[in-house]
């Protein structure tokens, strides 16, 4: 998977790991993206839901970009249910924002208080 797409997913990693239903997402994922062995491993995993979600994301990150793992994952999230659809939209928004950032532009955030935040942008 493309690094920018991985970064967009990683930005929402906590929400994904804690909240998605891995079996439902896998069921909604395009057939040729995951091998039968990968699907069975995810579905029959005896680990916790968090561990299963981590494994699903890890498998997706290893997929070739030509298979469109990011796009298919986001589509599977949208098809699963309303809460998964919200996560899909958040991931897409993060990806689009990151994609708009060029190599010459960096943005850092410094939290001043719990209620306010200042953004500093440097551009060459």
Automatic annotation (TrEMBL):
InterPro entries: CARD_dom, DEATH-like_dom_sf
Alphabetical UniProt keywords: Immunity, Innate immunity, Isopeptide bond, Phosphoprotein, Ubl conjugation
Stored Gene3D superfamilies: Death Domain, Fas (1.10.533.10)
GO terms under biological process: innate immune response
UniProt keyword annotation of Ubl conjugation present: yes
Domain of life of the native organism: Eukaryota
GO cellular component: cytoplasm
Name assigned to this protein: Caspase recruitment domain-containing protein
């Amino acid at each position: 998977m493309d690094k920018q797409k991985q970064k967009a997913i990683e930005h929402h990693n906590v929400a994904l790991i804690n909240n998605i239903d891995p079996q439902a997402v896998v069921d909604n994922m395009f057939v040729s993206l995951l091998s039968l062995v990968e699907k069975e491993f995810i579905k029959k995993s005896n680990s916790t839901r968090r561990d299963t979600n981590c494994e699903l994301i890890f498998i997706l990150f290893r997929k070739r970009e030509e298979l469109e793992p990011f796009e298919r994952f986001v589509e599977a999230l949208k098809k699963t249910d309303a809460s998964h659809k919200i996560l899909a939209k958040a991931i897409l928004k993060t990806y689009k924002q990151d994609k708009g950032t060029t190599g010459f532009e960096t943005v850092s955030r410094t939290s001043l208080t719990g209620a306010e935040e200042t953004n500093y942008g440097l551009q060459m």
